[in-house]
Amino acid sequence: MTTEHLINQIQTKKSFLCIGLDVDLNKIPEHLLQTEDPIFEFNKAIIDATHDLCVSYKPNTAFYEAYGIKGWQSLEKTINYINEKYPEIFTIADAKRGDIGNTSSMYAKAFFEDLNFNSVTVAPYMGKDSVEPFLAFKNKHTIMLALTSNEGAFDFQTQNVNGQELYKVVLETSKSWKNSENLMYVVGATKAEYFTEIRKIVPNSFLLVPGVGAQGGSLAEVCKYGMSDNVGLLINSSRGIIYASNGTDFAEKAREEALKLQQEMEQILNK
Hints:
By secondary structure, the protein is α/β, with parallel strands linked by helices. The chain is globular and about 55 Å long. The protein has helices at about 5-15, 40-50, 60-65, 70-85, 100-115, 130-135, 155, 165-175, 195-200, 220-225, 240, 250-270, and strands spanning about 15-20, 55-60, 90-95, 120, 140-145, 160, 165, 185, 205-210, 235.
């Protein structure tokens, strides 16, 4: 999927919402546990209820890998369902992979070719030879961790390196890598005050922004400082949407929560 396709979808839906499909069998409605594939049935219902309100879905692969081969099969069924029924949706494999050379190439093949995701999240700690194998895939996007919303982010990401914070060094350096036009970046919503500085370095890149909703990030603040001319934001919400109810009305309640965010986004876009 091209960036232009994603931008067109944002304009059409008046939304830049990404819904995280982080499925925990301890949290989904009990009646689904009686089905052959509870994870897929949960995802399918959420997707059918919200696809017109969001532009992206982001399964965190850990929530599938934790259940072994059955979990991986649920992930495969989920991505196939999205690609077949809602091909306009931008899909993100939230895998946070990071290794070098052939290993990165194999990770990239797994998510881009076998599962046919549009994008995958990666960790840049090992440098360009851990990221460039992902960037080599045409019309696929690599979403690199830049400034995350967790408490431990301050252990390294904001440390001073030769007069500049490390996350800024990472952003600047990544722009020199081969096929860097295929890069997007993860920036946590709870770091809204940093968006101005980030936009000075990557003014037009898309930013995947977790942390709105359950983690306390402000959509208005993120948009105020982080929105670019082409919007340039994918705002992720996971728990606040998919676990809005644990009853038989879970999909309906998920839609209600997604609609609240979409309507807020539409108001921001109309301004």
